[in-house]
Give the backbone structure.
Amino acid sequence: MSRPSTKDFFVKERLTEARDARGITQADLGKALGRSASAISNWERGEQTPEPVMLAPLASALELPTRYFLHPMPDHGTCAIFFRSLANATARARSKERARMRWLQHISLTLQEVLEFPRVDMPEFVERGTYSRLTHNDLEQIALAMRKHWRLGEGPVTSMVLVAENAGIVVGIDEVGTTKIDGQANWCACDHRPYMLLAKDKYTAFRRQMDVAHELAHLVLHRDIEENELERNFDKIEEQAKYLACAFLLPHRSFAAEIHSLSLDGFMALKAKWKVSLGAMIMRAHHLDILSDAAAQRLWKYRATRGWHKVEPLDLPTETPVEQPRLLRRSIEMLVSSKVRSKSDILNYDLCLGAPDVEMLASLPAHYFAENVVLVPFEPKLKERNDNEPGSIIPLRRPR
């Protein structure tokens, strides 16, 4: 008699994805399960599969439903996932966030089976494969073309998150655990839709604006780039995204017309209106030759002297609320409120992810998937007296 096996239904790629998403090594997982690192490696390569009795401990160790390992892995394509840094110090963090991006796409793809998402409104502002020849003047013209297409005019953009979601981009949030990763973007081949996953760690409205603009720039300029090309041309690709993000948020004509003082306080007076950090405005004014090299250096120095290189005025969420993505949260809430699916079904049968993961990635309130417990208030009342029962005498003792 053959031994029970998970060979016919265990998806090995899901194990690798889950381990990366939790940021743990094969040795760490093996230790938690009482297995060797080589055993975990064999499972991930498909040379062996975990015994059926190991599925529950495996799921528990990775804080996921058992059904997660049965989901087929879709073909996400070969487009690069863009990060701000490729340093060795962030390698594990990048592996983690790459897996979390796939979870974001998994949530979106599952919801799109029953809901119609906004169409992707991302025309090709740049001919594919030509990004390496773009000049700063080209990027200025692309920024204006993007604003014209989305009818944004040349004034301040009040919500970059809303601009992205209206263009059909699915935006998620994640707590990365490091300030070295601000966000990431990717074109997914499964639904030919762009995605953004933004870091919650640098939690300011102005950082959120620039992060979305930066990832949007990658999606516009570099949509066909694969991982190996990203590594080869990383510095140029990042510089272009930074420049286009600033040009998009601060159009050269309208922004330059509002600069009445080249002092630190003069730029600070524009911050609340333009929804962009002081640092970004100094950089943009320098790009436009409004500030000389020496003048820009003086402002950077004064900014650091005031301690604003860490936290600027208006940065606290209590001062300026941080814009949150809406699409995934409203999609899940719609399914629940319309009684199409229950919270439990969405979490355990459709998505098969951990509740905290879905709540974070989809910008849902914490404990959204917790079962609602009805508490009945207890009211004390006097016991009914039965006059037919003989009374009892409580003896009193004389104090000593």
The first strand starts at residue 170 and ends at 174. Residues 206 and 277 are 6 Å apart (CA to CA). The chain is about 45% helix and 5% strand. The chain has three domains: 12-70, 88-305, 327-361.
